[in-house]
Design brief:
The longest helix is centred in the first third of the chain and has 21 residues, at 11-31. This protein has five domains: 11-34 and 41-185, no CATH class; 209-342, Rossmann fold (3-Layer(aba) Sandwich), CATH 3.40.50.300; 348-396, no CATH class; 437-597, P-loop containing nucleotide triphosphate hydrolases (Rossmann fold); 603-690, Helicase, Ruva Protein, domain 3, CATH 1.10.8.60. Strands 1-3-4-5-2-6 form a six-stranded mixed sheet, sandwiched between helices. Strands 9-11-12-13-10-14 form a six-stranded mixed sheet. A two-stranded parallel sheet has the order 7-8. Helix 11 packs across helix 12 (238-248). The protein has 694 residues and is α/β, with parallel strands linked by helices. The chain is elongated and about 125 Å long. Helix 15 links the parallel strand 4 and strand 5 (320-324).
Length: 694
C-alpha cells in the first residue's frame, strides 16, 4: 500500500488545520439543537449526540486524524517537525488533553473560532475559553468522570500547558502559557538567564577518553529514577563531558545554574521550578543542575521543592543530572538513588594539547615547552583557556616567554594562605650564595628532580613504581643566619615558582584537631597552584617524639604523623629548615629526599659575604678593610648584612660615603644586640672609633 503524502508541510498549516477542525465542531454545535446538560459534580458526564460532517469537511478531518496517526520515523523522514504530534507521541497525551490544547490553540490562532464560540455560549464579551466551554466541543463514545477532569494527572497537565491556577474546576481558564504557545507554533523561546542549552565552548581536543565509554553507558542505561552525579574540580569540564555524552546519544540537556537558581526568593524559586519543568517537558530535555551549592540550614526548604521537581521530571522520563566540586556537601542525596562519576583532571598530555590548541600560531622562547608547563601546573581546561588568553593579550608579539606563561598560570590559581603563610618574592640567585662549591652543586642537582620530573615520572613511567607522591622535599640544617631562607628563595627563582613561608605559630594549635585542619588547608591551597611550601624552624613540629605520657603527648605525635603523611603525598615541593638537625625525629629524617647541612661561613666566605653586602651603586670610600672585618668577627651572613645596612644608614644620615668608621660602630651595636660583651681589644686598630662608647 502506497504511503500517503504528509498533508501539512509547515507548522503553520498544521496549526491552521487544527483550528479548522475545532471550528467545525463549534459550527456544528451552533447549528444543532440545544445540547443536553453534560456536567454534574458527582456523576459521570453524559455523551453528547454525534453529528455528521459534510463530505468535503469529513475528508479534511480524515487527513487531520491521519496526521496524528503518523509514525515517528515518518515525521523524521520528511524533516518536518510537528509540535503537537510530537507531544502526543512523547508524552502519551489523552484525547481529552489533546482536545484542550487544540481549543486553546484555536482561540489564539483563529478570530472566526473566537466569534463562533462567543455565539455558542451567548457571551459576546467572552475573553478566554474555560473548561466548561471547551467540554461543549468535546465528542467521545465514553463517559468522563470527575477524576478524569480534576485528578492529579490533569492538574499536572494544566500546570505545564496553561497559565497557573491554584484550583482546577469547570471555570478554570484554558489559556496557553507563553512557553506552551511558543512551542506549539514553532517559535523560539527566550529562556531565563540562568538556563541554557549551549555550554561556553566545546573542548578543542577530546578529553577524558578513558571515561567516555563508562559515561555513555551510565547515561544511556540509567533510568529517570536515578540521579547521575558528576564531581570534579571547578573548570575540569563536567558540563562539556555531559554535553558530549548527550550529543552521542542524540539527547538535549537543559543546563541550570544552581547558584543562581538557589539565590531566588521562595516565590521566585517556585515559579522558576515550574519554568524548568515546562522547558524540559516540551523539549524532552534532561536537566543538569550545575555547580550545586552548599545549602545553609536556614534554606533547607529549597530541598523539598527541588525534590518535588526531580520527582515530577522522573514521572515524565526526564533524567536529573547534578555537577559539584565534591560529593560530601550535597545533602539531598540521602533522599534519592544516584550514580556517581568523578571527572579527573586532564593528563599532562591532554593539558599540553590544550595549550597547543589555545596558543596555535604562537612560539615559545628558548627550549621551553608546553609539556613543562603542564607538568608544573595542574590546571583545568578552563584555567588553561583563561591563562592562554591572558598571555596573548600581554605578549608584544607571537613569542611567549616562560615567565609570562607561568605568571598567567599563577593568576589562575590564587592561593588563600594569607592567614597562615607569607608569600616571599624571590630576589636571590646562585651568585648570591656563598657556600662550598660541592654543596652548591648538590643543591643544584636537587632542582633537577623538579625540572625533569615529567620525563622521569611520566615519559619513563617511574610513576608506576612510585605512585604515592611524586613531589620533592628538602631539609636545610644550619645555625641561624647561615642562609637557609636565602636558599629557599634561590630554588624558587631557579624553578620560577611562587614561594610561601608557613607561619608555624599560626598552624600549630593547642586545641585538639586544629593543627591537622590548618595543615590540611595549607596543602589543599598549595595543590591549586603548584607553589613551594617553606616550613621554617621545623623543630616545633618535628622534634623527637616522646613516650606517650598523657593526652597531650598522644596528640602531638599524631600531628607529627599527619604532617609526614601530607608531605609524602604532596606532588609539589616542600622546603624545610631547622637550626638543629639532631633535634629532628628519626622517622622524619628517613622520609626526606635531600638534607643539606649549611656550614657556618669560614673566614674566606665571610670575606665574600662582606663584599657582596654592598651594591655597586653604594657611595663608599676605597679603603674599607674587608679582610679585617672577615677575620675579626666570626659572624653569620645574616649579621654581616645587618651591619652593612646599619652602617649605610649612618653614612647617609651624615651625608658621607660609607667608611670603616660607620661599619665599626654598626658592628658594635649589632653584636651588643646579640648579647655579646665587647672590649676595645675586639676592634683592634679601629678601637679608637668607639672612644667614649666602650
Amino acid at each position: 500500500m502506497q504511503e500517503k503524502t504528509l498533508p501539512f508541510p509547515t507548522i503553520g498549516q498544521y496549526n491552521l488545520a487544527i483550528c479548522h477542525y475545532v471550528q467545525l465542531q463549534a459550527d456544528c454545535l451552533l447549528s444543532a439543537p440545544q445540547p443536553t446538560k453534560y456536567m454534574e459534580e458527582e456523576n459521570p458526564i453524559s455523551v453528547l449526540p454525534q453529528f455528521q460532517l459534510p463530505k468535503e469537511q469529513a475528508s479534511l478531518l480524515e487527513e487531520q486524524l491521519y496526521t496524528f496517526a503518523l509514525k515517528t520515523n515518518r515525521t523524521a523522514k520528511t524533516g518536518i517537525f510537528l509540535p503537537l504530534y510530537t507531544l502526543i507521541h512523547n508524552r502519551k497525551l489523552s484525547r481529552l488533553q489533546v482536545h484542550f490544547i487544540m481549543v486553546a490553540l484555536a482561540w489564539e490562532y483563529s478570530p472566526s473560532f473566537c466569534d463562533t464560540l462567543r455565539k455558542l455560549v451567548k457571551n459576546p464579551s467572552l475573553g478566554c475559553v474555560d473548561m466548561n466551554t471547551a467540554l461543549l466541543l468535546y465528542r467521545t463514545h465514553s463517559s468522563l468522570s470527575i477524576q478524569n477532569l480534576f485528578g492529579k494527572e490533569m492538574k499536572e497537565f494544566f500546570s505545564i500547558f496553561f497559565h497557573s491556577t491554584n484550583t482546577l474546576d469547570r471555570n478554570t481558564k484554558i489559556k496557553l502559557n507563553p512557553r506552551a504557545l511558543s512551542y506549539l507554533i514553532g517559535k523560539e523561546y527566550a529562556l531565563p538567564y540562568f538556563m541554557h542549552y549551549k555550554i561556553e565552548e566545546e573542548n578543542l581536543i577530546p578529553l577524558h577518553s578513558s571515561l567516555k565509554e563508562d559515561g555513555i553507558s551510565i547515561y544511556k542505561n540509567s533510568s529517570a529514577d536515578t540521579v547521575i552525579l558528576y564531581t570534579g574540580k571547578n573548570g575540569v569540564g563536567k558540563k562539556t563531558f555531559i554535553k558530549e555524552m548527550a550529543d552521542h546519544l542524540d539527547k538535549e540537556v537543559l543546563f541550570v545554574d544552581s547558584n543562581l537558581f538557589f539565590s531566588f526568593s521562595k516565590k521566585e524559586f517556585e515559579a522558576y521550578k515550574n519554568t524548568i519543568l515546562q522547558e524540559s517537558y516540551f523539549k524532552n530535555a534532561d536537566v543538569c543542575f550545575f555547580d550545586f551549592p552548599v545549602l545553609p540550614p536556614q534554606e533547607q526548604w529549597r530541598e523539598a521543592i527541588l525534590l518535588n521537581l526531580i520527582h515530577q521530571l522522573k514521572c515524565y522520563g526526564i533524567k536529573t543530572l547534578i555537577t559539584a566540586d565534591e560529593l560530601d556537601y550535597i545533602s539531598i542525596l540521602k533522599y534519592m538513588d544516584y550514580i556517581h562519576l568523578n571527572i579527573p583532571m586532564p593528563t599532562i598530555e591532554e593539558q599540553t594539547k590544550l595549550w597547543e590548541s589555545h596558543l596555535k600560531g604562537y612560539s615559545l622562547c628558548h627550549s621551553f615547552h608546553f609539556t613543562e608547563l603542564s607538568a608544573k601546573f595542574q590546571l583545568t581546561p578552563k584555567q588553561i583557556k583563561n591563562a592562554a588568553y591572558e598571555a596573548k593579550i600581554l605578549s608584544e608579539d607571537c613569542t611567549l616567554s616562560s615567565s609570562l606563561l607561568q605568571n598567567c598560570c599563577y593568576n589562575q590559581t590564587l592561593v588563600n594562605l594569607s592567614e597562615i603563610a607569607q608569600r616571599i618574592n624571590p630576589v636571590f640567585t646562585w651568585e648570591d650564595l656563598v657556600l662550598p662549591p660541592s654543596l652548591k652543586q648538590s643543591i643544584r642537582q636537587s632542582c633537577n628532580h623538579i625540572k625533569l620530573k615529567n620525563i622521569v615520572y611520566n615519559e619513563w613511567q617511574f610513576s608506576h613504581r612510585f605512585s604515592y607522591g611524586t613531589g620533592v622535599n628538602i631539609l636545610f640544617a644550619g645555625a641561624p643566619g647561615t642562609g637557609k631562607t636565602m636558599l629557599a628563595q634561590v630554588i624558587a627563582k631557579e624553578l620560577e615558582m611562587e614561594l610561601y613561608r608557613i607561619d608555624l605559630s599560626a598552624v600549630v594549635s593547642k586545641y585538639i584537631g586544629e593543627t591537622e585542619k590548618n595543615l590540611q588547608k595549607v596543602f589543599d591551597e598549595a595543590k591549586k597552584s603548584s607553589v613551594i611550601l617553606f616550613f621554617d624552624e621545623m623543630d616545633s613540629l618535628f622534634g623527637k617524639r616522646s613516650e606517650t605520657q598523657d593526652a597531650h603527648d598522644k596528640y602531638a605525635n599524631m600531628e607529627t604523623a599527619y604532617l609526614l603523611q601530607k608531605i609524602e603525598s604532596y606532588n609539589g615541593i616542600v622546603l624545610m629548615a631547622t637550626n638543629y638537625l639532631t633535634n629532628i625525629d628519626d622517622a622524619f629524617i628517613r622520609r626526606i629526599h635531600f638534607i643539606f647541612s649549611i656550614p657556618f661561613p669560614s673566614e674566606e666566605n665571610r670575606l665574600l659575604l662582606w663584599k657582596q653586602s654592598f651594591p655597586k651603586e653604594a657611595d663608599m670610600v676605597n679603603d674599607i678593610d674587608f679582610p679585617f672585618l672577615a677575620h675579626k668577627f666570626e659572624i653569620s651572613g645574616a649579621i654581616i648584612k645587618n651591619i652593612a645596612l646599619s652602617g649605610a644608614f649612618m653614612a647617609a644620615s651624615e651625608h658621607q660615603p660609607i667608611s670603616m668608621n660607620h661599619l665599626i660602630k654598626a658592628a658594635y651595636l649589632e653584636l651588643s644586640k646579640q648579647g655579646k660583651i665587647l672590649l676595645k681589644e675586639d676592634f683592634g686598630q679601629y678601637a679608637y672609633i668607639l672612644e667614649g662608647v666602650i
